[in-house]
Amino acid sequence: MYEPPLHRNENLPELHALIRERVFGLLISNGAEGLVANSVPFVLDSAASRLGALKVHVARANSQWRDLEASPDVLVVFQGRDHYITPSWYETKRETGKVVPTWNYTMVQAKGRAKIMDDAWLARQIEELTQALEQRREKPWAVGDAPADFIAMQRRAIVGIEIEIVDIRGKWKTSQNRNVADRAGVISGLDALGDEESRAMAEIVRQTSRD
Question: For labeling, which of 46, 86, 98, 99 is most exposed (least CB within 10 Å)?
Fold first, then answer.
C-alpha cells in the first residue's frame, strides 16, 4: 500500500478498532489459478499474537481455502470510512483557486499466514462472530436459538481459517495536507451533509488535524 508518512497510522489499537468496526474484509490470496479475492466477515483476536489474529470461515465449496493449504500467505483489506472531498469546501479555493477534488478514507491492510482449523475451533468462531454482530441488538440472536442438528449441518458446509497477522498497515488520508482553514472547511462541509458517513468522516478529520 502506498503510504506517505503524513497518512501513515501506526497506532495498533486504532488499527484493531477499525477492524472491529468494519468486520467485512477482503481476503486476498494467490492460488493455482492466480489471485483470488473474497469478501467475508472476520473476528479479530488481538491477544493471539503480537499483532493479533484474524478468524474467518468460508463456504466449503469456495476453492480459496484449498489454495491456502498450498500457499498460505494472504492479504486482508479492511475499508474504513471514506468520503469524496470537493474543493469548494477549501478556503484556498476562494484565495487562489489552486485546488482539486480528492477522496478521504481510512484503511487497514493485514498480511498473514492462513491455517485451516478443526471443527471445534470453527464452532467457537461462529459463536464469537455471531456475538460480535448481534450484541448491539435489543434482542440478540444466538447460535443456540437454532436446532443443534441444523447448526451441525450448516457447519459441515463451511471451513474455518485462522490468520496470524505478521504485518499490519493503516492509512488515514483525512485532509492532513491541508491548512487549518481548509480543514475547517472540510469539517463544516461534511457536517452540513448530515448523513452518518459524512459526520463520521468529519470527526476523523477533527481527530487527525495536526496544527
Answer: 98
